[in-house]
């Protein structure tokens, strides 16, 4: 078995991280933690008031937000997270609890309602699935969230414009009925 060795830029105290076949899950978690540590080490050199995290599709296993935030209250306030509702629901997690874990660190959300809590779940128009979209929107408002909300609807890809439009209408209707600061 061969290994590709990734050297993570830190303050020089971290050894190279080997990525081996079959060890991808723990290696990705460790890599993510080391990258966050590297950002922390160099935070004064960073520009901007928020730093986001991009997750390439399929690259990292679906994990609990506490697992990737690694004690978010101890991190630089510019480090944030994209709250990916569909990934959480497909992993069997409660999106409301996940949002609460990431309070103050959410910089964007991928909003999705699914027909069931399973890896094979598919999109349904907001309000018709198990994600609890009204509760999610209420929690984001309670937190004072001001980031981007991406409407995700990937089911029936070639003919889903009507369903995606229903999702947008749901959010607009929720906003009209829940006026005030926030969303």
Could you provide a short overview of the structure?
This protein has 183 residues and is α/β, with parallel strands linked by helices. Helices cover 34% and strands 11% of the residues.
Provide tags for this entry.
6 helices, disordered N terminus, two-stranded antiparallel ribbon, 3-stranded parallel sheet, 2 domains, TIM Barrel, 183 residues, 5 strands, globular, alpha/beta
Layout of helices and strands, plus pairs?
Blueprint: E1 4-6, E2 17-19, H1 24-41, H2 65-69, E3 81-84, H3 85-90, H4 95-101, E4 106-111, H5 133-142, E5 148-151, H6 161-177
Parallel strand pairs: 3-4, 4-5
Antiparallel strand pairs: 1-2
What amount of the residues lies in strands?
5-15%
Summarize the main sheet: 3 strands, parallel
Shape, principal axes of CA atoms: globular
Q: Which structural category do the helix and sheet elements fall into?
A: alpha/beta
Number of domains: 2
Number of helices: 6
Order of helices and strands: EEHHEHHEHEH
CATH class of the largest domain: Alpha Beta
In the CATH hierarchy, the third-tier topology of the largest domain is known as TIM Barrel
- Poorly predicted runs are 1-11, 16-25, 44-63
- CA-based gyration radius: 18 Å
Mean pLDDT: 73
Query: What would CATH call the homologous superfamily of the largest domain?
Result: Divalent-metal-dependent TIM barrel enzymes
Q: What helical percentage do the residues reach?
A: 25-40%
State the distance separating the first and last CA atoms. Answer: 51 Å
Question: Quick one: how many beta strands?
Answer: 5
């Amino acid at each position: 078995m061969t290994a590709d060795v990734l050297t993570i830029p830190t303050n020089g105290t971290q050894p190279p991280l080997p990525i081996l076949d079959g060890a991808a899950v723990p290696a990705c978690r460790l890599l993510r933690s080391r990258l966050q540590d590297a950002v922390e080490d160099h935070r004064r050199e960073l520009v901007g008031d928020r730093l986001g995290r991009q997750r390439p599709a399929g690259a990292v296993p679906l994990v609990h937000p506490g697992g990737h935030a690694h004690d978010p209250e101890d991190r630089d306030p510019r480090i944030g997270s994209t709250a990916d509702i569909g990934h959480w629901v497909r992993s069997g997690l409660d999106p409301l609890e996940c949002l609460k874990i990431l309070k103050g660190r959410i910089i964007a959300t991928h909003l999705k309602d699914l027909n069931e809590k399973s890896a094979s779940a598919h999109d349904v128009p907001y309000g018709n699935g198990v994600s609890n979209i009204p509760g999610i929107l209420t929690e984001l408002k309670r937190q004072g969230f001001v980031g981007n909300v991406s409407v995700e609807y990937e089911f029936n890809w070639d003919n889903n414009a009507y369903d995606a439009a229903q999702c947008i209408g749901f959010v607009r209707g929720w906003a009209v009925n829940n006026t005030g600061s926030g969303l």
